[in-house]
Amino acid sequence: MKPNLNNVTLKITAGLPKQFPASPLPQIAFSGRSNVGKSSLINCLLGRKNLARVSGEPGKTITVNFYDLDGKLYLVDLPGYGYAKRSPEEKKRWSALTDGYFTSNPNIGALKLVIQLIDSRTGLTADDRDMLLYLTETGLPHIIAATKADKLNATETGKFLSGMGEDPLTQRVPLVLCSSKSGLGRDALWKAILDAADPR
């Protein structure tokens, strides 16, 4: 599988589980807290600047966005979690929509990989741990993309990697250091995506 990165469109913006596509295309989901850099990472992977909208207000948009990549797979941008200023009603809606992606997705079998984004500067938050625990308990294949790694020096990077390597939730999970600004980790993430989407 060699998708044409110039042929990508925002296919579906789903605000309700019933709007999730019934297409059998492989799905690669991106999960992470608000402001962790999901949209920026998707833009970096696709070589675009503004395809995935980078919000100036974290957590503002509560939708699941399906990007059709050359008719070969979906990159799925899940709504960011853990935004402190979100209202209780919005938090409830986020929870229902994200939970619905995993539990009411008509093609959950098409979900080949979850890329769990973690801010390398802050490490795991309580919400990150909850998400990783869910992925572990359900057996969903997942890797970690440690974002904003360009902002760490060598000592900070070593400390972050050491902590992740010692944590029971992350020590056996493949981890890629990433930077949307420099492109660090882009090739490694694409390899993981394509291996998962087309494991032949």
Q: What can you tell me about this protein's structure?
A:
This protein has helices at residues 38-46, 88-103, 126-138, 154-166, 186-197; strands at 8-14, 27-31, 64-69, 73-77, 111-119, 142-147, 175-177. The protein is α/β, with parallel strands linked by helices and 200 residues long. It has one domain (8-197): Rossmann fold (3-Layer(aba) Sandwich), CATH 3.40.50.300. It has a seven-stranded mixed sheet with strand order 1-3-4-2-5-6-7, with helices on both faces. The longest helix has 16 residues, at 88-103. The mean pLDDT is 88.
The pLDDT mean sits at 88
The 3D shape can be described as globular
Largest sheet: 7 strands, mixed
Question: Which parts are unreliable, with pLDDT below 50 for 5 consecutive residues or more?
Answer: none
State the distance separating the first and last CA atoms. 10 Å
Structure class: alpha/beta
How much β-strand is present in the residues? 15-25%
Taken in chain order, the helices and strands follow as: EEHEEHEHEHEH
Query: What's the CATH H-level superfamily name?
Result: P-loop containing nucleotide triphosphate hydrolases
- What is the number of helices? 5
CATH class: Alpha Beta
CATH architectural label: 3-Layer(aba) Sandwich
For the largest beta sheet, what order do the strands appear in spatially? 1-3-4-2-5-6-7
- How many independent structural domains? 1
The amount of helix comes to 25-40%
